[in-house]
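Progress note, project year one: complex with adenosine-5'-diphosphate.
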Amino acid sequence: MVVSEERGDSVEERLRVLFVTAEVTPFARTGGLGDMTAALSQVLSALGHDVRLVIPLYQTVRDGGFALTEVATDLSVPLVTGRRTARVWQGSFAGREGPADVPVYFIEQDDYFARPGLYGDETGDYADNAQRFVFFCRAALALAERLEWFPQVFHCHDWHTALVPAFLRFLPGLAARVSAAAALFTIHNLAYQGWFPAWAFGITGLPLSLFRVGGVEFFGLMNFMKAGLYYADQLSTVSPTYAQEICTPELGFGLDGVLRDRREVLTGILNGVDYQGWNPATDPALAAHYSAADLTGKAVCKRALLRTYEMPEDLAAPLVGLISRFVDQKGVDLVADAIDRLLTLGLRLVVLGSGEARYERRFAELGRRYPARVGVRLGFNDALAHQIQAGSDCLLMPSRYEPCGLTQLYSLRYGTIPTVRATGGLRDTVTPFDPASGQGTGFVFQEPRAEALVEAVGTARRVFADRQAWLRLMHNAMAQDFSWGQSATRYLDLYRRAIATR
Ligand code: ADP
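Model obtained:
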């Protein structure tokens, strides 16, 4: 135990950690990854650690009206293809309680990042994603050297940043104080691995010997994710159940063997919730505020939500929300397949999502077919996501797999009862309601089939009809505490372990 001079109180050793990530809320976000990096970094900083983040300066950041200050005009990033320079900007999570001084660095390189999307556009992934994220990973290391701020741990998130652990070990020419750092690699979603043709290995600058099955090669392709899985000192993923599932062929996406090999350094740590940003008692996006002690505002939110969706203000019918990326993972097709049976139960559905065109078309069509009972908005709309959380009675998450899932955690706090499939983080965070004992927080089904979903929603419908039971359920849900405290401590343990074993 040492005393931190800056704070004057006793904290354990103050760690220096650089988060290298493709997403940070509110700057750039497509889902839970950005929420997690923003929340965890701020919690660790509040605990007294020197945590900073680096992300690309995307067009969305530029357009977002954030106050950024320039910290370097000419960061030199050596690449196989020659040096490139980047400007570096710094921002912070201003306007929030707690430490306002968690530095967020933005790497500006317009050839790579001045585009409408983070990873692609409506025609698919950007063709040069390998170049973009090789550059970004290399730039993160150059940044540490330039700032003369040497992290003890690079905390890397998902495939976009998975090269960093390999660079630390094997890239020639790195400053010794940079390459001495340890790496923690966190898997937020194993399905997205960063596969590229073999030429992409050539632009990494890594020794050719790493392009093998026991390295970054994957059936003749370059696989970014494997660099993180093999060369990070510690691995984590975002729930205990998902940590087990990814070691199996069913959910290992071809990398379960690698993960079994590294099982002793793989830890599942549940994501926490930023309850400052997700609190129905203070949420600025809502028509009215409410809490477990006084739920009257929730009915106001329900009415406002129905109005937003131009649906009849029928408060008696249960209103079910679906907020999701439209991809196979999320099982949104099960909801579409089940729609007639769900409507037979007398409920209303409000949908917010975007993603694969076939799902967007399908939901748009359902909205047109049942205008009074199915409301559909396509796109990414954070305020509306909050309004659905508050105004709905139930939330659907029928995921085929779910590393952690934050949406169901938000819904619990908003007293919006989740119906989820028993997988990954959903299994770890939602317990089936038992009317006899009054225990439980939601409804859970096992099989990824429309019938199983309908059955679970049918159970929810019956409980909903019993006002006392439903109130009990809402109180159980709202009392759940998935704040970051415990999980943050576990990340600190992993950092220390990574440093000790480097
Ligand atoms: P994932 O990261 O796999 O998409 P999570 O449940 O962990 O799933 O996190 C999803 C996050 O993205 C939540 O904060 C949710 O509110 C938000 N989100 C998802 N789709 C949309 C959308 N269409 N509009 C606004 N927010 C969305």
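The chain is about 35% helix and 20% strand.
Residues 1-10 have pLDDT under 50 and may be disordered.
No further modelling is planned for this target in the current period.
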